[in-house]
Amino acid sequence: MGGVPGGMKNRLVVPIAAAAVISIVCLALGVGAYLGAVSAARLTEFTLLRDAGVALPASDAMRAARDLAAQEDMARWALLMLATSMIGVAVTVAGTGAVVIQIGLTRKALDAAESANVTSKEIGEAQVRAYLALSDCTVVLEHGKVKVRFKMTNAGQSPANGIVNEVTISIHHRNGDWSWQTSKRTSPVDISANRTEGMICRSTAQIPADHAAHFLQPSAAIIRVQCRTYYSDVFGHPQESDWFFATKKELVGEKNTVKLGRIVPPSKPWFPVNALEISAVQASEGDATV
Known about the structure:
disordered C terminus, 6-stranded antiparallel sheet, alpha+beta, 4 helices, 4-stranded antiparallel sheet
């Protein structure tokens, strides 16, 4: 990317330098030709007078004429020096402008190179960093106790470090018209590249006994799970992902194992649970929508 500004720099500096050299050479040739012509004319004049035998008196008039000629020569030289100075000033201004343009192009080239380096670094990190995915989310209800099981896969080319899952589960019992929810954070774990690990999150809170009693008879319930995952990639950058699962299931007995389907992120917050909101959920095992 740096080649383009360098080429523009050469196209600016070289013509200016060439023009300056040509101007100086032409000026020198013009001055030399002019002085040569003046000197030749005077030499011819004095030669003709001498050959004709004319005496050249050293009078005041002759000295005055020579002084006048010398003053005229000095005036001509002053004019030539002025012209030369003007040309030098023009060349200097042009050169200064070329330097300013070159500095600007160099700065743009450096900025472009820095941006390219940043982009290249980001692309390289994106190709190597860890990418986590959750699947096979299952909720186990047993005597009021709740645990969530799922599989977590690192599909990246480097380890995912310090993985912490913040799991929130909500249960809405449609027949009993009650809702219950709880949250739990898992302990940090690491997952190597291209590896799948099973995860279990056990809730310390239990479903109240009067609510759990409703499961003794067949009854419909809507179960939702949100898992927010925090981890660091191999470059030390913090990463965060959200996963959502839901299902509507007929529950019966004191122990139920329910598989949830993954859904797209909802357009509005899931929690806290609102009975009127959750009653509108349409979901089935393995596939759920909000």
